[in-house]
Amino acid sequence: MKFSILQQDLLPILSSVSRSVGVRSTLPVLGNILFSSEGKKIKVAATNLEIGVIKYISAEISEEGEITVPAKTILEIIQGIGTAKVDFESSGELLKISTEKFSANIKGISSTEFPVIPVAEEEGIVFKSNVLKGSSQILFAAATDEGRPILTGILTKSEAGRLDLVATDGFRLAHRKVSLDGDKILKCLIPRRTFEEVLRIIDEEDLGEDSDIEISSSASSNQVVFKIGETTISSRLIEGIFPSWEKIIPTEIKARTIVDRSSLLSAAKLASIFAKNEANVLTLKLEKDKLILSSESKELGSQVNEVEAQVEGEELEIAFNAKFLIDALSAAGSSQLMMEFSGPLSPTLIKPVGEEGLEYIIMPVRLS
Length: 368
Prior knowledge:
alpha+beta, DNA Polymerase III, Chain A, domain 2, 3 domains, eight-stranded antiparallel sheet
């Protein structure tokens, strides 16, 4: 293989792909990046067997071929040589990298040992990039404890012209609903880490909001494949049955409030100072034209804070884990929130005003 490329064009590609190498793998080739010529482009790929990333970049190709080389080494070299035209030439399992003033030989591994990264087997669902950018507002609700792997995933379900993205750790839930063109069916449980990587790549690709993204799944290999511009991301799916999340959404509303998000968030953060040593519990009380947030600690003392709000329905008192409330308020993004209450021991529904299709549910804490 023999090709030439500008350092400033290759570096961002390598930086992005190298995040997906197998850092502590027992298979040495998983620590490598694959370079392969395909037509007038170079394919750059990496995988840790959980997630694989393929990117394509135009280059001056004078001889076809492929090789894998250590990701850390190639990245450090390309970072260090500075802006220049870089020539690559492979011979067996050796890759020569040279510029006008620099030359290096890197020992690689045959591309025959590099795992196949699955690609889409059939056409998937297509939507605009801003749909996935919006998924960043729900990822926080997925579990981080690997003891319940099902809850570490994001339910991704497309049916009847609608896409649902759902995350829950059993104590809170975040749901984003989006309308789609077409009625293609897709249902899979995608790891949170995959979604986080997808969001990074969307930002790196600098896609416009009207750019298309395609998701397809492969039942045979239990994989999901994202196509984002010149990038393909493949990931293993989580196996298992996701909880019946629709049953958690409250239907009987006893009280409702509309409140300024930033004011409530500031009050919740202040309450959390005194809640940290007491199971992180804060109490929210609904009264006419205001919400009262209180918390106390045997060691630190107590605090009470009033927030102006529009309140209708019953006056009630409900307790929350302060972190769960703060996470939802931080992710919402809108200037105002609607909160709907079904009672002191029932889930509370939070809807950002003006952001259709986005909602959060927080389970209350039982006060002793």
